[in-house]
Amino acid sequence: MVQATPFLLVLSLALVAPSFSARKCVLTGKWINDLGSNMTIGALNGKGDFFGNYHTAVTSTTNEIRVSALQGSQHLMKQKSQPTFGFTVHWSFSDSVTVFTGQCFVDESGKEVLKTMWLLRSRVDNIHDDWKAT
């Protein structure tokens, strides 16, 4: 009987695993990151485009932080349960823009998680300062 136990465990894991991968990750809704920034993404249109807003908890400017508009798109979810996406935030309180790109995942516990990379571009006064703008 001892030899059958590992086989039953492997078999039960194999039967449970497809339910995790079959669950779709939905980008629409409210998201909060580990630094306390939050964003709300509205419904996707038929082409996968969306609009929303972003309220950052961190900034390098001394200006008052305000909610900023975002717009982006994701791959349509016809056959993709964990889609890729990208969006741009035009900061309403500074002369900078940030682009984000990432993927929406469903983790082992069934929680939806966004994994992203971002790039911020600040305005500079001249081309010689370009090196410090990104």
From TrEMBL:
Q: Give the record's family classification.
A: Belongs to the avidin/streptavidin family.
Gene3D superfamilies for this protein: Avidin-like
Query: Has the keyword Secreted been applied to this entry?
Result: yes
According to the UniProt entry, its GO molecular function terms are: biotin binding
Q: What does this protein do?
A: Forms a strong non-covalent specific complex with biotin.
Q: What does UniProt give as GO cellular component?
A: extracellular region
Q: Does the keyword Membrane apply?
A: no
Which pairs are disulfide-linked? 25-104
Q: Which InterPro entries match?
A: Avidin (IPR005469), Avidin-like_sf (IPR036896), Avidin/str (IPR005468), Avidin/Streptavidin-rel (IPR051764)
Query: Which Pfam families does its entry note?
Result: Avidin
Which protein, by its recorded name, is this? Avidin
Q: What is the lineage of its organism?
A: Eukaryota, Metazoa, Chordata, Craniata, Vertebrata
Location relative to the cell: Secreted
UniProt subunit comment: Homotetramer.
Q: Which residues form the signal peptide?
A: 1-21
Keywords linked to the UniProt accession:
Biotin, Disulfide bond, Glycoprotein, Secreted, Signal
